[in-house]
């Protein structure tokens, strides 16, 4: 029998994509239990120990009602037994959550016959402690189901040579800084291809734009310095058992500089044995 080696708890806001995350974990070979009361987590772990289930994921959320309150205690009890759970927390902006819930034609489980937003406010308060101890936080506000699935798979698939996985995300500052980033870099110090007429309609994925951005002396300096910074922090992340790092690289609109630099930086990480996913959050929004 194969013992349990990896245990993931999926939680977060209603409508933030817990179902999509669960399906992504299933594709990675996890045995997934949905809507499990926190009080039954230890029972579930005991049931699969030695039962040829090496990867277990449980979805715990506010649908459990009063049962949810014991989640932190359950995780601490398991930790004392030497079983470390990785907590994946999903969230999104209120207006997006409300829109998704309305589209699904379902009331919020904590709305208590009031407004949907009231339910989300109660849920955020209920989840405050769990979010604070989450290993991975993913903001799904601007992610479709395919992007989210890729982020989850990148976080929990087999690690690269260093045991560290990374997600490099380009973004536009005018659309807001990603709240789930571990590190943020600003590319607005580089000349903007937007002001070069022939480059304006292209993106950082196009060779002329990429070559223009990467040919800037400061671009090479940034790649070297940031690569060294990540290299220096790697031991610290792994020591704290944090094996997934989200690096956000931004420019004004998230179309030219940040896209080109994200692709280039991801290649550097891969060259050092870090399994790396690239996400262009705002490309195509303008």
Automatic annotation (TrEMBL):
Q: Which organism is it from?
A: Aeromicrobium erythreum
Keywords from UniProt, A to Z, are: ATP-binding, GTP-binding, Nucleotide-binding
What terms describe the molecular function in GO for this protein? ATP binding; GTP binding
- Cross-referenced InterPro entries, in alphabetical order? P-loop_NTPase, RapZ-like, RapZ-like_N, RapZ_C
Q: Where is the RapZ-like N-terminal domain?
A: 7-157
- Which positions in this protein are listed as binding ATP? 12-19
Q: Could you tell me which PANTHER family the record lists for this protein?
A: RNASE ADAPTER PROTEIN RAPZ (PTHR30448:SF0)
* Residue positions binding GTP: 61-64
Q: Which domain of life is it from?
A: Bacteria
Name under which the protein is recorded: GlmZ(SRNA)-inactivating NTPase
Annotated ranges, domain RapZ C-terminal: 166-283
């Amino acid at each position: 029998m194969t013992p349990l080696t990896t245990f993931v708890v999926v939680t977060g806001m209603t409508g933030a994509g817990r179902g999509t995350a669960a399906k992504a974990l299933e594709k990675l070979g996890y045995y997934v239990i949905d809507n499990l009361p926190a009080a039954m987590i230890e029972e579930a772990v005991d049931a699969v120990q030695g039962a040829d289930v090496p990867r277990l994921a449980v979805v715990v959320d506010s649908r459990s009602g009063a049962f949810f309150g014991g989640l932190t205690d359950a995780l601490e009890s398991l930790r004392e037994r030497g079983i470390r759970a990785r907590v994946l927390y999903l969230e999104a902006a209120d207006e997006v959550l409300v829109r998704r819930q309305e589209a699904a034609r379902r009331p919020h489980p904590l709305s208590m016959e009031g407004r949907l937003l009231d339910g989300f406010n109660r849920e955020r308060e209920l989840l405050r402690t769990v979010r604070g101890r989450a290993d991975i936080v993913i903001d799904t506000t601007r992610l479709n189901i395919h992007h989210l699935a890729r982020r989850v798979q990148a976080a929990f698939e087999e690690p690269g040579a260093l045991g560290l996985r990374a997600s490099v995300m380009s973004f536009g500052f005018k659309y807001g800084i990603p709240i789930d980033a571990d590190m943020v870099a600003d590319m607005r110090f580089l000349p903007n291809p937007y002001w070069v007429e022939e480059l304006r309609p292209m993106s950082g994925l196009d060779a002329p734009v990429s070559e223009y951005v990467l040919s800037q002396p400061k671009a090479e300096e940034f790649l070297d310095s940031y690569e060294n910074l990540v290299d220096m922090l790697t031991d610290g992340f792994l020591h704290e058992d944090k094996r997934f790092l989200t690096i956000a690289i931004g420019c004004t609109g998230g179309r030219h500089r940040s896209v080109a630099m994200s692709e280039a930086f991801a290649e550097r990480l891969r060259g050092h044995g870090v399994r790396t996913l690239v996400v262009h959050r705002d490309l195509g929004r303008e």
